[in-house]
Amino acid sequence: MDTSDQGTMPSLKEFLLTFFMPEKCYDHFFIYFNFLHVPCLKIIMKQTMGILILMGIVIAPLPQIWKILWSGSSNGLCLTSIFLELLAISTRAAFCYTQNFPIGAWGESLFALIQIAVLALLIQHYRGKTIKGIYFLALYCSFMFLLASPLTPVSVVWTLHEWNVLLVIAGRFFQAGSNYKCGHTGQLSALSVFLAFLGSLGRIFSSLQDTGLSMSSQMHALACCGSGLMLLQVLMYWNKCMTNREKEGQVQKDKAE
C-alpha cells in the first residue's frame, strides 16, 4: 500500500470522528458498509446541522465586513436590520451569561455580536456618521452591561431570549424590503446571506428534533424564508449590482485622474 494512503486515511478518520460521528458509526459505514443505519444517520445529520448553525452565527458576518472594507461603501445595507440582528444575538449572550453557562456553550454568540457591532459601526462610518456610530457603540455597551447585570430581572432576560428569533425574522424582512425598494442589493454579501440561510436550515432541523412541529420550529422556518428571499434577491439583482459597481469604479478612476 502506498505510504501516502496510509497517511491520508487516518487523518480522514480523525476528521470524521471529531466532527461528524462516533467510532461505532464509522465502523458501520466504512467497515461493514451499512450506509442505511438510521441511528448513525441521525447522529451525522445532527452534527452537520450543528456545524451549519455555527457557520451561520460565527462566519456569516465576516464576508459582509470584508466586502464593506474592500468596496469602501455600505450602500444597500439596512441599518435597522443590523440593529435587530445585533439585539437578537445579544439577548442570547446575556441569557447564557446570567445563567452561568460555560463560555464554550455560548462563546460563538459573543464572537458574533462583536462582529455585528463592528458591522453597524462600519455602515455608519461609510455614510459619514462615524461619531453617531461611536455613540451607538457606547450606548450598546451600556445596554449590554445593564442586561447582564443583576439590575435586570431574570424573567426579562428569559423572555427576550425566548423571542429573539422574532427579531431575526424582522431584521431579515427589513433587509429584503430595503432591497426591493432600492431595486438592488448594493454591497450585501452573497456569501453572508448564503451562510445565514444554511444556519437557518440547521436551526429548523434542530428545532424539529427537539420540540417537533412547535411554534419555535415554525419561527425558525420564517427566519429561513427571510434568508431565502434575500438570497433570491441577490441572484435576481446580480447583473444590476455588477453594473453599478463598474460605474462606481469608473467614477473613482475619473476622480483620481
- From the N-terminal CA to the C-terminal CA, the straight-line distance is 63 Å
Query: Major β-sheet, in short?
Result: none
User: Helical content, roughly?
Assistant: over 70%
Low-confidence residue ranges: 1-9, 250-257
Q: What fraction of the residues are assigned to beta strands by DSSP?
A: under 5%
List the SSEs and their pairings:
Layout: H1 3-19, H2 23-30, H3 38-59, H4 61-71, H5 79-98, H6 103-125, H7 130-148, H8 154-162, H9 164-182, H10 190-211, H11 215-236, H12 238-256
Helix pairs in contact: 3-6, 3-10, 4-6, 5-6, 5-8, 5-9, 6-7, 9-11, 10-11
Features:
mainly alpha, globular, disordered C terminus
State the gist of this model:
By secondary structure, the chain is mainly alpha-helical. It contains twelve helices and no strands.
Describe the structure.
Helices cover about 80% and strands about 0% of the residues. The protein is built from twelve helices and no strands. The model is unreliable at about 1-10 and about 250-255 (pLDDT under 50). The chain is an all-alpha fold and about 260 residues long.
